[in-house]
């Protein structure tokens, strides 16, 4: 009977320690989970970040085109001529969906690698640090960037107005002033007309 009385408190104490340890493990697991979640969120944001003059998500100005193809896979469409090329990737490989297009130029001199010169995106998921992206209004664009109007263009018969910032970002807007596509290009320069269509 004495042994039984001694065992019961010992079992209760062990049970309490186990419960505390279990709660602590759960709290640690939750903390670790939130760190992973935060990390994933930051990573996801970087994958969709537009940096004028620098990059659109994982693709950078002056990046070797072979690295882009390794990252994004085989393009869904494209064209090439005279050391220049355009490659286009569609969301879910659907030509009617959002597109990412890159324009590359190959230097036949000392550096023969094809380099990214322009990146065009149509997905509203891409945003600048100022939260400007496809679907932003011209007023929102003008609050964030000093832009100059360029030549009007058409895309699938629809008229578009081009606005460019020498910080290295250009905007295609519809006749209501809503952004339909964004082009990242080299900073310090005006957007150059490509010899092959980006759209």
List the helices and strands and how they pair.
Blueprint: H1 2-47, E1 49-51, E2 55-56, E3 59-60, H2 65-72, E4 77-81, E5 84-90, E6 99-106, E7 114-121, E8 127-128, H3 138-144, E9 148-149, E10 153-155, E11 158-165, E12 169-173, E13 179-185
Parallel strand pairs: 1-8
Antiparallel strand pairs: 1-2, 2-3, 4-5, 5-6, 6-7, 7-13, 9-11, 10-11, 11-12, 12-13
What's this, in brief?
The chain has helices at 2-47, 65-72, 138-144, and strands spanning 49-51, 55-56, 59-60, 77-81, 84-90, 99-106, 114-121, 127-128, 148-149, 153-155, 158-165, 169-173, 179-185. It has 199 residues and is an alpha+beta fold. The strands form 2 sheets. Strands 4, 5, 6, 7, 9, 10, 11, 12 and 13 form a 9-stranded antiparallel β-sheet that branches. Strands 3-2-1-8 form a 4-stranded mixed β-sheet.
